[in-house]
Amino acid sequence: MKTFNVQTSYATYPDCHLVVDAYQNNGHIALEIWSDEEGPITNLTVNIAGVESMPENVSCVDTNNFPEALAIIRQLKIGKPLEGKFLRSGWCIYPMVEFNLDSIRKYAGK
User: Fold this and answer.
1) In the 8-state DSSP scheme, what is residue 51?
2) Are 79 and 97 spatial neighbours (Cβ–Cβ below 8 Å)?
3) What's the whole-model pTM score?
4) What percent of the chain has pLDDT over 90?
């Protein structure tokens, strides 16, 4: 498993990895960033109604709670934003990303 560092406006978290799961209601990919030292850092994805019509490797990215999410996805080369595809939930608009499951496995732990 490869690890990576996460830099936020609050702290730097070394030796992070991805925890990969699926949302129970629709089977779409659910990603979380973990640090063995700190525990859970953040969720990369968020479960939003409306994603069901997309392939299961597509999920919405939680840029509301983790503004650095798209930069991390690009840095790790684990997915690409779908041009012009967003879903709204409440006051937030979340970008949809097509994830590369093979690339994600490189960073997946536990």
Assistant:
1) G
2) yes
3) 0.92
4) 83
